[in-house]
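call fold(seq) -> tokens
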Amino acid sequence: MNLGRILIVTGVIILLVGLAIVLFEEKLKWFGSMPFDLNYKNKSMHIFAPFGSMIIISAVLTVVLNVILKLFK
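ret:
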């Protein structure tokens, strides 16, 4: 694949993920409220780092990509 096709495919994937987030916003309320998600507030500062949610998404994406790559091998 050349660079142009890779960029187009990447753009389409980002577009589809964005549409899924917009369309299924109600079903994605769990994101940010998992164990290990850091949420700190005080008078002048708010820190939010969804570590637990990122770990789960990383694990799911790893499994999905491994299955896809094995299918095309």
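The first helix runs from residue 3 to 23.
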